[in-house]
Input
Amino acid sequence: MAAPAEVSIVIPAFNEAGAIAGVVRDLRAEAEWHEILVIDDASTDDTAALAEGAGALVVRQPYNKGNGAAVKAGIRAATGEYLLIVDGDGQHKPSDAVRLASRLGTYDLVVGARSAATQAGPVRRLGNALLNWLASYLAERKIPDLTSGFRGARVNRLREFLFLLPNGFSTPTTTTMTFVKAGYSVHFEPIDQRQRTGHSKIRLSSDGVKFLVILLRIITIYSPMRIFLPVAGASFAIGAAYAAWTIATQMHITNSSVLLIMFGVVVFLVGLVSEQLASQRFDGRK
Output
């Protein structure tokens, strides 16, 4: 169990003047944290000044780089043994921050898993549900909330995967999948989030595709056969079934059947080689 005095709070913030001071004050009132870092991503409002006035240490980005880049700057700047990422829009409860921090030490990564009822809009909930289902299949364990930004981890574990983290809004997806597939202990703590101040900067139509690409990218690094094997199996099965049908009805095998079967075999072999390369990549890592 990690004490708050061992935990650095990192708050990535871009134009969060309406909420940031309250977020910092509420966190300070809840516990004696090691430090509260607000990473100001070149905001055009008073986010930085208000955060400083509330008692946070502010790290200013020279230009807008994205939420993920702000989180990475916070990971580099943190001096605590553990790190807790909190959104700057006021939707995360300070009491939940203490609860997540208490799980650190037992687990390498703790994620605040939002209830469906507190996630904004039916379309967003459906999109998140589909991503959670796909991530659970690829990771081979249940993932109830893939995209929650409210999460904590050991700082040295986060720095181990810093090169994989994108500069955009896919940091939660990447950290969840990398920690799970690397064999670290991951815990999903149920939370209810509050109504945010302002509007979400994530757009499901564009960022949803990015989340999907991140999922596939991480899995091809760690367990490529989770992707290659279903594709190869489907292609081979369709080709074999079509060949059996044409033999039974037309007494010959079509070129389409042969191509599908060969494609399945080639994809399987490529996946097998990728799996071996993935295993060798991490053999020497502790």
About this structure: The domain at 4-221 is CATH 3.90.550.10 (Spore Coat Polysaccharide Biosynthesis Protein SpsA; Chain A). The chain has two domains: 4-221, 225-283. The longest helix spans residues 255-283.
